[in-house]
Amino acid sequence: MPHNDRTPLAHRIHTHLFSALLFITLAMFSAFSHAAEEKPVAGDQQKASYAALADILQDDKARAELIMHLREAARAEPAAANAETKMNEPQAEQLSLIDQLVDTTQQTASGIMKRVQELKNTINSGPQHHFNAARFFPALGYFLLTVAVTFAFFHLIRRLIGPLYLRLGRWGNHARMKETHWYKLPASIIGAFAVDLGILLLTVAAGNLFAQYVNGGSPLIARLQALFLSAFAVIEFFKAVLRLIFSPSFGYLRPFPLADVTARYWNTRLAWVSGLIGYALMVGVPVVATQINYTTAAVVNFVVMLALTIYASWLILHNRRTIHHEFNQLAERSMAFFSVILRALGHVWHLLAVSYFVVLFFLSQFDFAGSLRFMMAATIKSLVIIGLGALISGLLSRWISRRITLPDDVNRRYPLLQKRINSYIPAGLKIIRVLVVLSVTLSLLDAWQIFNLNKWFMTETGEKVISSLGHMLFILCFAIVAWTLLASVIEHRLAQELSNGARPSARERTLLTLFRNVLAIVICTITIMIMLSQVGLNIAPLLAGAGALGLAVSFGAQTLVKDVITGIFIQFENGMNTGEYVTVMGISGTVERMTIRSIGLRDIYGVYHIVPYSSITTLSNYEREFGVYRASYNVSRDEDVDAANAVLREAVEALKQDENIKPLLLGEPTYQGVVGLGDQFFTLRVLVRTKALEQWTVQYALDRLVKNHFAKAGIEMPRQAVQIYKDEAGAGASEAFPLVGPER
């Protein structure tokens, strides 16, 4: 550690000495270049330079200044280089997704050209081995023995474990048939795949143990055995994935509804194709390249891969319509979200499959074994990504179709809470499902090295996009939760009963309803503004423009402004509230709805009227404190006034004794006596004060009682009469005939 601490100091000392020597050398070179012409002068200058340097080194202050100057000169170039690097770094980090895809394409093309040139140089100048039969055939024997023992052990273990697969399949299928414990079938499928992987690991371990002791003591045979075992592990893992998908021998463990014949058909052919390609590229071609020459290996690789690519393309195109039909049938049995994807995939699956083998063919010409490892790794990653994405999307789709049911007491206290939750949760799950699809797409591009997702996350653009997206989702969730809580509290207040059993007053209900509407507008506006700021938009000009626009609108929409202001004053004066019976503009009805610019009235015929506040010049409210029924009755002029008045009092007393009407009366009735005198009748009047909106109920009851009491007392209502004059024998005589008309 002490040595390391002194190392930088020693390095600086050597640097300063080297700089001083360089200065002296330059001075000497300059002096020697002019020695032929000015030898005395050059000698004097050289002496002066030595003397000046000696003085500088002797003086502590001058020596410190020289050291500082040399250090600053040493830092100048690295600092400039770092500044230039920092100036260029943001430009690299600001690359968009499209720019990165273009760069990736260009790098891939240049890499392909480079690999082509390297392959050409390797074929032309690679080591050319001479075929040695005495060494090759014994090695081949040990190699084939290792292959035979490994495959025999692998298939023997699989046959012995067969009953376990059967029990796992029956366990999962039994749960699926009873539609209980939905997790058992996926658990049985994953369990079977884990057993497959365990058998594979056990076989590879046994093969390595066999190769360690049975190799004839030859390093060449050991390398060939290790080469085969590594290829066996990769290829059989891919075949295990195929068995996971198709499960040809155990239909209960098949995750997709495929027929047994179809599953066996595709599993067999894909297993053979993958096995031939894998062992050819990872074992056969490398052996030829090391034991014979690279040219022969390249030819063998080209012929084998071309034949397998042609066969795979023919197999895909031959079954194009069949698989398309299978995709359509699977789409009909799937949820709507997956149905669209499956139908689209049914139209293009053959193009994707053919492209897969064509790409593998071209990559295999540049790298024998590495291309297959890359393709298999990318394929397995793609299958895992698609499987996880399908699983998550399937769960989200199931949850989207479900509805949440709250307890009855919660629904009673918060009437609209359940409806809001069942509208918010599906929308939020759909947004999450879109994000899952986007994540799956980017992950697939990253798996095939088309787009470097991790690198993009580390760039400023990636960090900004992820941060903005997270902030927007948080703000949206916070706004929804805040609105739900506040609106639920308001609705709870509107729906609850007070301690005396009464509901909140009409004014309170009106103000709470208006406050809820204003709160919704405010929360939506603030949320939109904050989300726009997170996107990167500058909302300051937007707010200024909104103010100017509002001013322009206020001039152009004066009626709207007048509606709002008039409505504010009506609420301030408590002119009317929701649920009250009013008359405005000659329209009588119940106030059903009040907004910031108008009211909604429902008249007795069920017609709904919208009346702007600015149109209200006179407002009649029937529900302020009390109501009055002014009862006027016409009695025939021939009747006694006092008797008629006494009968009217009896009818009013009977009204006061009615148990149904008595709670509606306020105070004592006021008898005004005779208030009108006509040719055929006189009018009696009584005023009855009632609760608000109950005057009509009292009217119906009192009119009935007055009619019955007048009839019982023999008091007649006025009748209309006409005079008929006769010009015959009784000329000049007249007779009055009563003409019965409608009672008044």
TrEMBL record:
Residue span(s) of domain Mechanosensitive ion channel MscS: 559-624
Listed transmembrane segments: 139-161, 182-206, 226-246, 270-292, 298-317, 337-362, 374-396, 431-451, 471-490, 511-533, 539-561
Protein localization: Cell membrane
InterPro entries: LSM_dom_sf, MS_channel_1st, MS_channel_C, MscS_beta-dom_sf, MscS_channel_2nd, MscS_channel_C_sf, MscS_channel_TM-2, YbiO-like_TM1
Residue ranges occupied by any Moderate conductance mechanosensitive channel YbiO-like transmembrane helix domain in the UniProt entry: 378-456
Pfam families in the cross-refs: MS_channel_1st, MS_channel_2nd, MS_channel_3rd, MS_channel_TM1
Annotated signal peptide: 1-35
Membrane topology: Multi-pass membrane protein
Chief location bin: membrane
Residues of the Mechanosensitive ion channel MscS C-terminal domain: 632-717
Keywords tagged on the record: Cell membrane, Membrane, Signal, Transmembrane, Transmembrane helix
Annotated Mechanosensitive ion channel transmembrane helices 2/3 domain residues: 517-558
The keyword Nuclease is annotated on this UniProt entry: no
PANTHER family associated with the record: MODERATE CONDUCTANCE MECHANOSENSITIVE CHANNEL YBIO
UniProt record similarity statement: Belongs to the MscS (TC 1.A.23) family.
Identification of the protein by name: Mechanosensitive channel protein
Organism: Rahnella inusitata
